[in-house]
């Protein structure tokens, strides 16, 4: 009997890592051009190239009850334990649906062990949590220890990012037209982060370049204070800028972070051109 990790597609963990650590991914979906697409099967270049021309943003949906049921049962039926790690319950119903599915399975297998964690974030900030949990599981640790390690990692991670335009935040109703117009005139770019399960504004900076510099300052100060473990650079349809940003981070951290694209579920709301850093420190930041 082993502990198996299940997470959702908004963790954006690279495929090679998923395979190496035997992490199961349940996909969210995007409704786009009157068709529902699993996020894990989408052509992101095609999707983002069309996104800017849409008057109405695509909508996203959580994994189906059946998909979560199958993801858990494939392990439970083999006698394994499951630890599920899902994006913030403030952003999606995925976590609450996972709880519903857990209770359905316990009616059939009362002795089954299914532990669920609300990651309170998304993207690779959540990915680091799933990776550490999976590494602990691979080392043979108990489900209780795996959960403890996951919660510890949650205290040691941060995700900061900045969109290149406010167009998608406006379309999604996250800022008003007047605020968007004023920000465009003043060339204000928000630096965003995730706190208490919600996307919040960390700072408002003039110009995209200075917003990127501000994120580097936040990153540098925190790794000096709390120690450096790992980092990745996220991007939305901006691989060249992301690679250049990763090289800058390498000059600070001593090694080049992976560059990982953000998928359609999260990317819809902030839009192409977004650049971010997700990182993990040695000591808890919160």
UniProtKB/TrEMBL annotation:
It comes from the Bacteria. InterPro entries: DegV, DegV_C, DegV_domain_contain. SUPFAM superfamilies: DAK1/DegV-like (SSF82549). One of its GO terms (molecular function) is lipid binding. Keywords: Lipid-binding. The keyword Disulfide bond does not apply. Coiled coil: none annotated. NCBIfam families: DegV. This is DegV domain-containing protein CA_C3284. It comes from Petrocella atlantisensis.
């Amino acid at each position: 009997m082993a502990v198996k990790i299940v997470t959702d597609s908004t963790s954006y963990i690279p495929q090679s890592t998923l395979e190496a650590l035997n992490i199961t991914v349940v996909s969210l979906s995007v409704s786009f051009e009157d068709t529902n697409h699993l996020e894990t099967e989408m052509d992101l270049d095609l999707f983002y190239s069309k996104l800017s021309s849409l008057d109405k943003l695509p909508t996203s949906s959580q994994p189906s009850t059946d998909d979560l049921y199958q993801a858990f049962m494939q392990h439970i039926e083999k006698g394994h334990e499951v630890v599920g790690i899902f994006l913030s319950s403030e952003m999606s119903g995925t976590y609450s649906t996972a709880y519903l599915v857990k209770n359905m399975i316990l009616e059939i297998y009362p002795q089954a062990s299914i532990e669920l964690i609300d990651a309170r974030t998304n993207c690779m900030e959540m990915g680091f949590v799933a990776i550490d949990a999976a590494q602990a599981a691979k080392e043979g640790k108990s489900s209780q220890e795996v959960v403890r390690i996951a919660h510890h990692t949650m205290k040691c991670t941060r995700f900061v990012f900045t969109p290149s335009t406010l167009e998608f935040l406006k379309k999604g109703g996250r800022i008003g037209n007047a605020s968007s117009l004023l920000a465009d005139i003043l060339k204000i770019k928000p630096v965003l982060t995730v706190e208490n399960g919600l996307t919040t504004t960390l700072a408002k900076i003039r110009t995209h370049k200075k917003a990127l510099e501000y994120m580097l300052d936040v990153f540098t100060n925190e790794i000096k204070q709390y120690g450096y473990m790992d980092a990745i650079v996220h991007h939305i349809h901006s691989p060249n800028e992301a690679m250049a940003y990763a090289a800058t981070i390498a000059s600070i951290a001593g090694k080049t972070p992976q560059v990982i694209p953000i998928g359609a579920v999260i990317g819809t709301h902030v839009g192409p051109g977004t650049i971010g850093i997700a990182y993990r420190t040695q000591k808890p930041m919160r």
